Amino acid sequence: MGTIVQADSLDHLFTLAKKMHRQVLNDKKIKRVVTAIKIDDRRAKKSTISFMYPFLKVLIYSSIG
What we know:
mainly alpha, 0% strand, flat
């Protein structure tokens, strides 16, 4: 499972990641959480999640089968 987010700064990104990680741990049944962060910091070309959504949708559905 994964979540794709876009942030205007690394500070905002890490703040959000910390909140997401802690939110999962609020469920007392959950004893372990692994949070992996992959950052794609591309400055040569402007791109947004809304631009990439159609491509991501194809990748997701093609991997499901």
